[in-house]
């Protein structure tokens, strides 16, 4: 019986993970929800302060949209679905950073 030959391989494998790309949840303005309701949703779901939730709501109202959360894609998709469940129009997009 002949011994199995070991191939002469000089190979380096990089096992480091690629950095997570940040994603954003964008809430868009709509003609249906009251501003006070949007503030309540941001406070209830995200736990934002009254001031921060109000600032985000004003961006939604005046600029047409606001970035309400940033993080890994899967988490942002969960947040966007939660915004839909509250009746808000939200999308997920790759962060411009």
TrEMBL record:
The keyword Hydrolase applies. GO terms for molecular function: peptidase activity. Residues 21-91 form the Adaptor protein ClpS core domain. Keywords: Hydrolase, Protease. SUPFAM superfamilies: ClpS-like. The keyword Protease applies. Pfam families: ClpS (PF02617). GO terms for biological process: protein catabolic process; proteolysis. Involved in the modulation of the specificity of the ClpAP-mediated ATP-dependent protein degradation. Belongs to the ClpS family. Binds to the N-terminal domain of the chaperone ClpA. NCBIfam families: PRK00033.1-1. This is ATP-dependent Clp protease adapter protein ClpS.
């Amino acid at each position: 019986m002949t011994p199995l030959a070991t191939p002469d391989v000089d190979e380096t494998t990089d096992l480091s993970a690629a950095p997570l790309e940040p994603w954003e949840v964008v809430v868009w303005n709509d003609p249906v929800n009251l501003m006070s309701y949007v503030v309540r949703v941001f406070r209830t779901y995200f736990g934002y302060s009254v001031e921060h939730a109000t600032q985000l709501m004003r961006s939604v109202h005046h600029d047409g949209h606001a970035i309400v959360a940033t993080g890994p894609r899967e988490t942002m998709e969960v947040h966007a679905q939660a915004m839909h469940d509250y009746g808000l129009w939200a999308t997920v997009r790759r962060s411009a950073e």
